[in-house]
Design a protein that fits this description.
The radius of gyration is 37 Å and the shape is rod-shaped. Strand 1 and strand 2 form a beta hairpin. The protein has a five-stranded antiparallel beta sheet. By secondary structure, it is α+β, with helices and mostly antiparallel strands. The chain starts with a helix and ends with a helix. It is built from eight helices and five strands, in the order αβββαααββαααα. About 65% of the residues lie in helices and about 15% in strands.
Length: about 260
Amino acid sequence: MNRVLCDMSINIKSGYKIIFIIGLIFSFASVFLDWYYIQGVLDNSGEPIMSWIYNTLFGWSTLFTEANMFNESYRPQNATMPVVIVMVLIALVFLSAYSTLFHDVEKGGNLLKVKRFGFITISLVTLIGFFVLVFPLFFLLPNDLYYPFMVYYDYELELTLSYSMGPGYWFQVIAFGCTFPYALFNQSVISTFEKEQYAPAEVIKTYIENVKEQFDLDKLIAQEELEIESTQLQRKIDPKNEVEQIYEDFLATRGRK
């Protein structure tokens, strides 16, 4: 029964791991895609006269020149995430991929090292959540950039304004859904192994093994016998007559007095 449960746990974690890697791919690809679109189209001709596109790496860009004052008047202000956060995300994606593929506590990996990589994985999921939730709440909505999409008709200007999230953002949403289960499951496995390692029975067992290694009686007896044999062999090689022995004992006794 225990073996069946263990095999099920391994299969579940393998499935989580595959989904997690897929999530990392989506998260990495998202930073190179468009995250938000603003477009203005004239109703009578269907010609776009305003367009802004947001990318997390390159910020806001437009197809029009600065001479188009109408387009410039719609340039989003204070709606750009710091690029350093995006670079941190990319670094965490690669570190998480490395830890997932090459470090696993269930395969005998070093627990301390696995815990550090587990912290990196949790940090990645938290940062992805930041992109998914904080980006629209603190960068879009305060700047009247509607979420997730909106179509507005300006009858006075006879203009249709479209606001919509791009594929990059939706890739990040998918990435969060793919990475969160494995990060949570992996953290629970690390906690379980940590509790087992520092359980009273395991601590006592480790202490006894260390003491046994330091005070190995068989080893000490063997070393003592070897020293005695070496002394006896030395006496056989360099024998002394009885007179010399008595004289040396006399000198030793005289010296103590």
